[in-house]
């Protein structure tokens, strides 16, 4: 085996050990949870913008609005709509 392959195997083995340890699984689980909530929020905002297009209404899709909508679901979307209509 060449030196490059040995180094690659050692690094891969270390990454697998780190990924399997409990101290690393907590933050990885949280990052996965946040990523899923961002995607759910972005999808909800997309459909809200699709329906809102009929009334010339648009809520920007960015990480903050997507995370708020993803975490709070429909109440979060309703809050964004009310804020958009009342404040702006």
Automatic annotation (TrEMBL):
TM segment ranges: 30-52, 64-87
Pfam families: BofA
Annotated keywords: Membrane, Transmembrane, Transmembrane helix
InterPro entries: BofA (IPR010001)
Keyword Transmembrane helix: yes
Protein name: Pro-sigmaK processing inhibitor BofA family protein
Source taxonomy: Bacteria, Bacillati, Bacillota, Bacilli, Bacillales
